[in-house]
Structure formats: structure tokens, C-alpha cells
Amino acid sequence: MQMELSQLILLRIKDPRLGFVTVTHVDVSPDLKSACVFYSVLGTEEAKRNTQMVLEKSAGFLQREIGGVLKMRNTPRLIFRLDASLEKGLEIDKILKDLKDKGEMQPEPEE
């Protein structure tokens, strides 16, 4: 489902407000009634808000398309959630690099 949603968002949604979206994970409920789609967007806070709005408005279309592609009789209701883990990882990496550059972080001794 993650791969198909990624392709559909990339190729079929033509809204110019849509940012550069990566579907990072999809959690489908055990009863298959809903699916939480986690995505990341590179850009400003405005780009993230616009992307969330476009995805929410496109949810019905994406749900129908997924149903056809995956040959599901009933498709889960799609719920979109911004995944901030990529940004947090980049932020942590930058902090560690800054500490290393300032000499405040000692390398681990080799055994």
C-alpha cells in the first residue's frame, strides 16, 4: 500500500500546492477500516500545511485508486499524518556535527 500510495501521489495528484512528499510508513488497522499514512515533506511550514490540506482533500480519490490497484472490495479510510522523524534526525545530526567541529565531543576509544 505504501508503494502504491507513493506512486499515486507522485503521478496522479496535480495540485501545485503539493510539496515534495515521501510516504514513510502506512499503518493499517486490523479490521482494514482505516489506514494511517505517515509522510514527510521537505520545505517550509507553509509547504507542510499546504501538503496536508491537498492530501486530505485527495483522500477519497486516493482511496478509490488504491481499491482498484490492490483489488480490495472495501478500502481503508486514509488518514494522513506528518512524520517529523526525518527532520528530527537531521537536526540531531547537525547538533552532533557542530559539537564535533567545536571539539566538545570526544571520539570513542577504540578497543
The number of helical runs is 3
Radius of gyration: 19 Å
The strands making up the biggest β-sheet line up spatially as 1-2-3
Estimated share of beta-strand residues:
15-25%
Report how far apart the termini are: 45 Å
Q: What is the mean pLDDT? A: 86
User: So, CATH architecture?
Assistant: 2-Layer Sandwich
CATH fold assignment: GMP Synthetase, Chain A, domain 3
Shape: elongated
Largest sheet: 3 strands, mixed
The total domain count is 1
CATH superfamily: K homology (KH) domain
Poorly predicted ranges: none
Q: Can you identify the CATH class? A: Alpha Beta
Global structural class: alpha+beta
Number of strands: 3
Query: What is the helix/strand order?
Result: HEEHEH
Q: What's this entry about, in short?
A:
The protein is an alpha+beta fold and 111 residues long.
Features:
elongated; about 50% helix; about 110 residues; 3-stranded mixed beta sheet; alpha+beta; single chain; 3 strands; GMP Synthetase, Chain A, domain 3
Task: Describe this entry's structure for a reader.
This protein is 50% helix and 22% strand. It is of the alpha+beta class and 111 residues long. The protein has a single domain (2-102), classed as K homology (KH) domain (GMP Synthetase, Chain A, domain 3), CATH 3.30.300. The protein has a three-stranded mixed sheet with strand order 1-2-3, covered by helices on one side.
